[in-house]
Design a protein that fits this description.
alpha/beta, 11 helices, 51% helix, four-stranded mixed beta sheet, 11 strands, 2-enoyl-CoA Hydratase, Chain A, domain 1
Length: 254
């Protein structure tokens, strides 16, 4: 199966979804996120599928949201709601009946880090990095990133990652529980397929039940956190810092 910017193929027990927008550093557009959600939903409903693996081409895993598209949305009265809705689409990862594994082969920025945090499992190649760069473009997280980051690493490390915006190595990401494991360069997909085979040895319904129990426990603790995160993002959207950052980006990319 082939989609614009996204390649979807079954490899044994896994559906492998490959981000393939090298001209945009695999940035997430609204259309790409919708296609990602549809692909994950189909995999969840297919009994032969035991895991979904997210990977990418190029030296970037996902560069975050598509800033060119976001610049256009800044001119729309519904633009901020459309961006926030992209995070709602990413909930399909948590709701999928089979584990979703991020196989991170390159740098991830901003919304790309939020995507990884939504996954059940994450592997990261030794030369890959994570950078929470939302503040650098005058924004905060919009897709559950702050919530999942605190769940994953605690409030102090979440503050360090979001407020400093520094790049985190694969080794540090694994030590801080941002990802499960650091793997050698070029080994991420093979290791994710190995994990899929391990998952496939267990009953599919039991794996789905474990996922549901983990998700519902997190949801009970989250209360209205997603709505509060969206409110903060909305307050910064199209503000002076955001406009200045977007103008700088557009000037550099001409």
């Amino acid at each position: 199966m082939t989609c614009p910017g996204l390649r979807v193929a079954q490899n044994g027990d896994a559906v492998v979804i490959t981000f393939d927008r090298p001209e945009a550093k695999n940035a997430l557009s609204r259309a790409l996120v919708r296609t990602l959600q549809e692909s994950i939903d189909r995999a969840s409903a297919e009994p032969s599928v035991r895991a979904v693996i997210l990977t990418a081409v190029d030296d970037v895993f996902v560069a975050g949201g598509d800033l060119r598209e976001f610049a256009e949305l800044m001119q729309s009265p519904t633009g901020v709601q459309e961006v926030i809705a992209m995070g709602t689409s990413l909930l399909s990862i948590e709701r999928c009946d089979v584990p979703v594994i991020a196989a991170v082969q390159g740098a991830a920025y901003g919304g790309g880090c939020e995507l990884i945090l939504a996954c059940d499992l994450a592997l990261m190649e030794t030369d890959a990095t994570l950078s929470f760069r939302q503040a650098a473009v005058g924004l905060s997280s919009a897709w559950g990133g702050a919530i999942r980051l605190i769940e994953r690493v605690g409030p102090m490390r979440a503050s360090q990652l979001m407020l400093l915006g520094e790049a985190i190595s694969a080794r540090q990401a694994a030590e801080w529980n941002l990802v499960n494991l650091e793997v050698p360069s070029g080994a991420c997909l093979d290791r994710a397929l190995e994990w899929t085979r391990m998952i496939a040895r267990q009953p599919r319904a039991a794996v789905a039940g474990c996922k549901r129990a983990l998700r519902e426990t997190r949801e009970a603790r989250r209360a209205d956190a997603f709505a509060k995160e969206a409110q903060v993002f909305s307050s910064l959207w199209n503000g002076p810092d955001h406009r200045a950052a977007m103008a700088s980006f557009l000037n550099r990319s001409r």
